[in-house]
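Handout for the seminar on molecular recognition.
Each group receives one record of this type.
Step one: identify the two inputs.
Step two: read the structure output and locate the region that could contact heme C.
Step three: write two sentences on what you found, then compare them with the reference statements printed after the record.
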Amino acid sequence: MPAAAQDAAAGDPMRGRQIARVCAACHGINGIAKNPDAANLAGQDGGYLVRQLVAFRSGDRKNDTMSLIAAGMTDSQIEDVSAYFAAIKIQVTSVPGQ
Ligand code: HEC
């Protein structure tokens, strides 16, 4: 496994917040998606976010928009933005009656 861009724990969430401005139109600056085709990223596992961005960048996962965006990202940008979205606290309320 390559050492690069695997570890959101290595990322800096404050630097990631600056990068997240690029993502905000679709994913929301707080990670709650504004675009129904884009996923909520708030509170998502950081390692999962890193893996998806690496997969978009390498072509293992394909999406017209995300492949283009990830193609321009460095390993540390991927780690930083993943650390930022992973650090957002979300609260979940179960479906009543379940
Ligand atoms: C123009 C809209 C747009 C922008 C801007 C955008 N995304 Fe996305 N993103 C999408 C869409 C649409 C998908 C769903 C892709 C798919 O269906 O595979 C997605 C998917 C993702 C996923 C996978 C989510 C999952 O649950 O598997 C990640 C991670 C992600 N985006 C991160 C980012 C980051 C980080 C940025 C900013 C650097 C960004 N995106 C910018 C539209 C966007």
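Reference statements: Residues 19, 22-23, 25-27, 35, 37-39, 41, 49, 52-53, 63, 65-66, 69, 81 surround heme C (CB under 6 Å). The CA atoms of residues 55 and 61 lie 5 Å apart.
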